[in-house]
From TrEMBL:
Keyword Transmembrane helix attributed: no
Transmembrane annotation, as ranges: none
The name this protein goes by in its record: Phosphate-binding protein
Gene3D superfamilies: Periplasmic binding protein-like II (3.40.190.10)
Keywords: Phosphate transport, Transport
SUPFAM superfamilies: Periplasmic binding protein-like II
GO molecular function, one term: phosphate ion binding
């Protein structure tokens, strides 16, 4: 019996799962996978290469799972070699941050101002439209240097989905997607690349996942939501926003959660997803066991400590049911 137990643990230690994709989710995935190895001996080699590259890696069958903040569309699904199960793992906020000496968090921005900065129409930090909605009146006479993603990005998908929903002119001229044709700006690879460009550029302005801004001591803008209130990004305001879409998410787990109704909803947020082949994929048992573990209370609390929004119980239940549809699934928790 002892020999069998030792052999079983050695087998678990020998498993290395491979994943690639989202930089948005990389901070929590790094912690999750380290903790999971401690508990089970299973290693996870996760490459934070961006959502687009993660989807391509799964399509090319070079990984056991992909990770994306832009769920696969019906058209995307048809291009995959096997049916794909996509489950959200957590929610998160995309924040507007900036490099303005002497200016901390709390700068107010509207969807229209953000759109016009990225369309090259607002070029200075002391533009009258910015000054008009802010209590901070000493904004510097500095050029705004907008920073965007240079790679196919789920963070860009969330950000441009927000602008598309909130600003008709943006919807007409630019639209939404993992990649768009940016009229102006500096490109950065991944959330780390955008963060680094903002930090090194006086007057820099861009969008990153909340944890990247907090960990790098960058200020956070308050963004006007659909109810007309200026809301600061946080776990609470992200949870409130996602909660507005629970009914729609039960019908289609891919439903965008941007520009949600509600007085306290933060308007630029979304879910981050993992993609697993329903059949035909590699290591389906260990992969489904890993992500059913991620649905547990401990893993979700770890996410909250890193400024991600834990999933509501109704979505966790849907996720566990979806994981069970994977051929060879090993679901670790739940009914």
């Amino acid at each position: 019996m002892l020999l069998l137990m030792v052999s079983g643990y050695a087998l678990a230690q020998s498993v290395t799962l491979r994943g690639a994709g989202s930089t948005f989710a990389a901070p929590i995935y790094t912690q999750w996978f380290a903790e999971y190895k401690k508990e089970t001996g299973v290693s996870v080699d996760y490459q934070a290469v961006g959502s687009g590259a993660g989807i391509n890696a799964l399509k090319n069958r070079t990984v056991d799972f992909g990770a994306t903040d832009a769920p696969l569309t019906d058209s995307d699904l048809k291009q995959m070699p096997f049916p794909v199960v996509q489950i959200p793992t957590l929610g998160g906020a995309v924040v507007m941050t900036y490099n303005l000496p002497g200016v901390g968090s709390g700068l107010r921005l509207t969807p229209e101002i953000i759109a016009d900065i990225y369309m090259g129409k607002i070029k200075k930090w002391n533009d009258p439209r910015i000054l008009a909605i802010n209590f901070i009146k000493n904004l510097p006479d500095l050029p705004i240097h907008p920073v965007h993603r240079s790679d196919a990005s789920g963070t860009t998908y969330i950000f441009t989905s927000f602008l598309t929903k909130a600003v008709p002119e943006w919807a007409k001229q630019i639209g939404s997607g993992k990649s768009v044709s940016w009229p102006v700006g500096i490109g950065g690879q991944g959330n780390p690349g955008v963060t680094a460009n903002i930090m090194r550029t006086k007057g820099g302005f861009g969008y990153v996942e909340l944890a990247y801004a907090i960990q790098n001591h960058l200020p956070l803008a308050s963004v006007r939501n659909a109810a007309g209130n200026f809301v600061t990004p946080s776990v609470t305001t992200t949870n409130i926003a996602i909660g507005q879409y629970i009914g729609a998410l039960k019908k289609d787990i891919r439903t965008p959660t941007v520009y949600a109704p509600g007085v306290n909803s933060y308007p630029i947020c979304g879910l981050t997803y993992v993609l697993i082949y329903q059949h035909g994929g590699s290591n389906p048992g260990p992969v489904t066991k890993l992500f059913s573990w991620a649905m547990g209370e401990k893993a979700q609390e770890m996410g909250e400590k890193l400024y991600y929004a834990p999933l509501p119980p109704s979505l966790i239940k849907l996720n566990l049911a979806a994981l069970k549809t994977v051929q060879g699934a090993q679901v670790a928790i739940g009914p």
